[in-house]
Structure formats: C-alpha cells, structure tokens
Design brief:
Strand content: 15-25%
Protein name: GTP pyrophosphokinase
CATH class of one domain: Alpha Beta
GO molecular function: kinase activity
CATH topology of one domain: Beta Polymerase, domain 2
GO biological process, one term: guanosine tetraphosphate biosynthetic process
Largest sheet: 5 strands, mixed
Radius of gyration: 29 Å
Keywords: Kinase, Transferase
Number of strands: 5
CATH architecture of one domain: 2-Layer Sandwich
Pathway: Purine metabolism; ppGpp biosynthesis; ppGpp from GTP: step 1/2
Shape: flat
Helix content: 55-70%
CATH superfamily of one domain: Beta Polymerase, domain 2
Length: 267
Amino acid sequence: MNEPDWKHLNAVPLPLQEFQLQLEQNGVNAKQLEEWRKIPVLYQLALEELKNKIKLIQTEWKLMDGFSPIEHIKTRIKEPHSIVEKVRRKGYEVTLDNILREIHDIAGMRVVCAFVKDIYRLMDHLRTREDIRILEVKDYIAQPKPNGYQSLHVIVEVPLILFEGTRWIKVEIQLRTLAMDFWASMEHILYYKFDKKVPEHVVNGLSEAARATYELDQKMLKLRGEILSLSEEQEQEESPEQPTAAESSSKTLSLATDHTESRPHTC
C-alpha cells in the first residue's frame, strides 16, 4: 500500500499507532505488522456492511408491519490494549494469527429491540440469510449470567468483496431489549465506579434489578399482545361486514324477482 493509504488507515477509529506499538513491544514480526495495518479498515468496513443489512431489515419490517421492532443500533471497534489483554487472558502469545483466530469481538454491534420476542424473530431471520454466517450463539436471555446479565450474543462473519477475493470478517452482535440495555449500562457504570470491587449489597441489588428487568419485559410483552388484540377487534367493528356469497346470491335473486313483478303486464 502507498503513503495515502496509510493516512486513510490512521483515520480509522481504532488507534492504529497505539496498536502498532503494542505489537512491536510484543515482538511481532514485520510481515505480521504489515498485515495488521489492513485489519482495522476491514473490521470497520465489516461493521458498516452489517449495519446496512440490519437497517434494510429494519426498513422492510416497518413497511410490512407498520413499525420496526429494532429501536436502535450501536457499533464499536475494540481498543488495542483490550485486545492485547484479552489474548493474554486466554493464554496465547500476542500474535496477529492469535488475535484474528481467538478474538471474536474486535468489531462489535449492539442491536436493541423493544421486546424479547423481536430478538428471537431477528435471530431466526439472520439464520436464513446467505450473506451472513453464524458461527456461535450464546443465549444469556434463556440462561442469564450469575449477576443477572441478559443478552443474546451472536458471532457472525460478514463477507467483504476485495481485489484479493472474498474475505469473511467476524463481528459480535449483542441483541437486547431496552430494559436489558439499561440494566447493562447501569451495571457497567457501577463496576467502573468501584473499580470492579463491588460491595456485596450492590451485587445483590443488581441481581434484584435484573429480575425486575425480566418481569418488566414479560409484562410489556403481555400488554403488547392485549393492545394488538384490542386493535384487531376495533378494526373489525369499524369496518362494514362483507356479505357472504350465499347472501349476495340471494339478494341478487330477490332484486331480480322484484324487478320482474314491477313490470306492467302486456296482453
């Protein structure tokens, strides 16, 4: 790649120079370093590609149903030091091969839906698509984490059509409801505040809040069903009843008979 390309790479949200320093300090060879220079752009492009696909689904659902179950979408690229730390925690050397093979959430997307039912509806749709490969699913909604965390985590691969050929890039998608997303944000803030040394009573409070989050989601889902049911009944009451085929035939015959009887008799 030439010099202008390097400038483009350095403009990507992932701090390339910081990562380059991290890799150099860990003895990554020059060839791997050259390969890594391409990676931030590829992950960013994979996120944009996936975001466009989700937005298309969002728009199509809105056209079909009159509303979209997807509330909003957020994306992020994992910080270099977090990637290096995660590779080490997994017990691997900090090499490009290990990063690409073992770290699945360098590119991350959060899709927030209104209801739990919508999360699984979206998941079922993703399974049918040929332009997305699903590698792994972790259902923390059906089986929440011990601290109460709920979300559906999906590792997918997104194809990028490059000059060198098609390259499939991994992205982690987190699917949550609005209530789950609020709980997770508050949990993150609290753990950051206490530097991950959270008092026991706060941990218990978070668990109680997680249960309340689940109950809120279930209550709202039930209310949604009742509202849709009432809406359908109202539409049926407001729309004029259509006569059946037999009624239409009988009415036509009656009109024809009345018309015949009303004619003047001729000799």
